[in-house]
Amino acid sequence: MNQHLRLLVLSAVALVFVASGCVAAPMVEQADTTCAWSTELLGAELDSEHPTNLVFPDTSANYWMSQVPMGPSTELTISGNVSDVRYWSLHTYVGGDGFTSALDHVNDASISSEADGSWKVRITPEGGSDANHLAGLPAGRDAGISWVVLRSYLPDDASLPIGPHELPTIQISSGRSGVTLELCDPHRVVSPVTRIPEPTEGSGSETPVQRPLSFSRTPSAATPFPNADTAYLAAPAVRLEGSVLVVRGRAPSFPGDGTGATTESAQLRYWSFCQFGMPSTSAVECVSDSDVPLDESGYYTIVVSDPSDRPQNADTQHDVAWLPWGREVQAQIGLRNMLPSADFDASAFAVPTRSIADDTNMGDFAPRAAMCPTAVFEASGHSGCGLA
Q1: Please, where are the H alpha helices in the chain?
Q2: Is residue 202 domain-resident?
Q3: Are 103 and 242 within one domain?
């Protein structure tokens, strides 16, 4: 396995346990960068054996990462032309805080671009006042390693994850000298031994149960390399034989949802539900906003279960989106809310950190969840599980 990616993966894995207080914070390695975008994670290719399927990725998103040593006079120039995607952004991070917060960022809505869609972003240690000039290091530091992450969500063509363009170029200059990094070859990565347990037939209990679950706002430390444009809600759950997990809530509008919502007028730029295995933090499967069926009142119903416990009415014909539980008995069900409009005050951003999403902060848009026997859902749907 590429030595640099191996260190990245080990750091990310350790961070999961840091967030839970299980181990001490990992040491930040000194990255050796000889090419651009050395780490690639394409959501459409994620599976249980993928070496970078860690730390809660979204299967509708694509991620590229570069690590660049910076000195007092270092300047990065990233040049690109990203289009035909629902959303894209550039974020910078450093290891001093365990990669638990974004240092600086710019997205497609805030960047200044040319008439042909091309743009340039400068990154210097201290950053600048305009959106196209990002800080690469924390205030007071003029030397270290800046981690740059490029994200894109929902490309129009899944085979073109960054749109109909090449990945942005990265030029590094210091004083009068400069060099443009060649693109790395992501296919040189070899998968390590998977951390995901083998398929299990057991569960937390053999007795179907009915009980409520809660979604709460996760702190940034729980999600290494968080997206500053996104708020996350999560509900922990344990698979129970003969039971399903049901999630119900009002759906926010998003661009192109059929209601006339545009990028500017939509309540959210993007939202999704994902099923993550624990403790691996790997994505089992996600469903994005455009693939979630709604009932006549504009509400969604998500069902998560072992395939053998899938209710017969957990399908799009019954306005239900279904997600498989996956190999691990424990799970986190995650909700992403991205870039709410200025007049939408009921997104996950309205929920205080570590607080529960409910009527007081999200109104009808709050996700409500319950464990419910499969037979009950088949007989009475979400209402039989106590979800109006």
Answers
A1: 3-19, 359-362, 374-384
A2: no
A3: no
Residue at 26 is within a domain? yes
Q: Work out whether strand 144-155 and strand 368-373 pair parallel, antiparallel, or are unpaired.
A: unpaired
3-state secondary structure of 301: strand
Rounded Cα distance, 269 and 109, in Å: 10
Residues 247 and 179 in one domain: no
pTM, full prediction: 0.86
Task: Indicate the helix (H) or strand (E) that contains 205.
Answer: none
Q: Do residues 236 and 201 lie in contact, with contact meaning Cβ atoms separated by under 8 Å? A: no
Nearest to 387 by CA among 375, 369, 360: 369
Domain stops at, among 188, 222, 242: 188
Beta partners for 147?
Answer: 67, 93
Q: Which long-range contacts (CB under 8 A, 24 or more apart) does 313-322 make?
A: 313/377, 313/378, 313/381, 314/244, 314/377, 318/381, 319/293, 319/294, 319/295, 320/293, 321/273, 321/287, 321/291, 321/292, 321/293
Exposed / middle / buried, residue 345 (Cβ in 10 Å: 0-12, 13-18, 19+): middle
Tens of pLDDT, residues 76-93: 999 999 889 999 999 999
Query: CA-CA distance, 285 to 3, in Å (whole number)?
Result: 28
266-320 per-position pLDDT tens digit = 999 999 999 999 988 889 999 999 999 999 999 999 999 999 999 999 999 999 9
Place of tokens 């390695």: 29
- Residue 205 belongs to a domain: no
The reply to whether 197 falls in a domain is no
Say how many domains are in the chain.
2
